[in-house]
Design brief:
single chain; 17% strand; 28% helix; 9 helices
Length: 327
């Protein structure tokens, strides 16, 4: 039985883009969810010093939301709200869950993946989960067909600068640990690995509707980037990482286009919360907004957001009305 709250995300898409409700094929849904990205960290919202051409094009071909919010400006809480359509407090998740957490997303919660599965969608999550690392909390137990990524934030490992009691950071595929102790070299490849999985998933499921959730580990500290983009931005490590994320978005959109699925796809790009400002040059910018991650000032909970869906979403349009992940 689908709860009213959990049904809201798809209802919101149908309301915004009525063509999606009328099409013979249900729309593919792609959610790219950044970690700790600031309001002014992408070109369409004022980024300076490095280029984000893929996101610039996405904004030109889609709709920019200037007043888009998350339920709480912290990792786990924000993700819980996105996937359930509920305020995080309603599902009992606050802040950022640590390793071996005794709580996580409850089995009774209806996720967006579950709603999609009821409509015969293929579903996958590639990236940072952060809704509990015990097996019962992992994506496959919440109606994702496939999963690859980190169970929580990439700084929750023995190399954390202040908290030395974290265990080794695992990399998980489906329900199994495939790398018991992630290294710096592994983290350098995370954005690439997530992107490759996402592209392969699109290619594999081109004949059926799909829900693809890509919650990037970046730009959460510690920042990591592959050799493809290291030193390329001229704006320091943060700029390099943002350029690689933009490349990832481009790869995913290109895969959608190559399969001829652009008119059958709705894509949302946003972030879980604002920049972690205490990390200085390793943090992004909230631009004109006050404060950042961990606060409910605008810089913490108001996120730069783009909706894209050629033929469904008006190109070059701007929405200044408030909207949220729980909508």
């Amino acid at each position: 039985m689908m709860s009213r709250a959990a049904a809201i995300p798809l209802a919101f898409l149908a309301m915004l883009f009525p063509a999606a409700a009328q099409a013979s094929r249900p729309p593919n849904i792609v959610v790219i969810f950044m970690d700790d990205m600031g309001y002014a960290d992408i070109g369409p919202f004022g980024a300076r010093g490095y280029a984000t051409p893929s996101l610039d094009r996405l904004a030109k071909e889609g709709r920019v939301f200037t007043d888009f919010y998350v339920s709480q400006a912290v990792c786990s809480a924000s993700r819980a709200a996105l996937l359930t359509g509920c305020y995080n407090g309603r599902v009992g998740i606050y802040g950022a869950l640590g390793p071996k957490s005794k709580i996580g997303i409850h089995e009774a919660e209806v996720t967006l993946a579950e709603i999609c599965r009821q409509k015969n969608y293929a579903t996958a999550c590639y990236g940072k989960w952060h809704l509990g690392d015990a097996r019962k909390f992992l994506p496959l137990q919440h109606d994702f067909d496939d999963y690859f990524g980190l169970p929580y934030s990439n700084d929750m490992w023995p190399l954390h600068p202040t908290a030395r009691n974290f265990p080794d950071l695992p990399l998980i595929e489906k329900n199994e640990v495939v790398t018991a102790a992630v290294t710096h070299e592994d983290q350098n490849q995370l954005t690439t690995w997530y992107t490759e999985r996402a592209v392969a998933f699109i290619e594999k499921n081109r004949e059926r509707p799909f829900f693809l959730y890509v919650p990037h580990s970046m730009v959460h500290v510690p920042l990591h980037v592959s050799d493809k983009f290291r030193g390329k931005s001229g704006a320091g490590l943060f700029g390099d990482v943002m350029m690689e994320v933009d490349w990832s978005v481009g790869q995913i959109v290109d895969a959608i286009r190559k399969q001829g699925l652009e008119k059958d796809t709705l894509l949302l790009f946003t972030s879980d919360n604002g920049p972690w400002l205490s990390y200085g040059e390793h943090a992004g910018s909230a631009g004109p907004l006050r404060e950042g991650k961990g606060t409910m000032f605008e810089g913490g909970c108001r996120e730069s957001t783009i909706f894209w869906g050629p033929g469904r979403v008006p190109a070059g349009s701007v929405c200044k009305e408030p909207a949220m992940t729980i909508d």
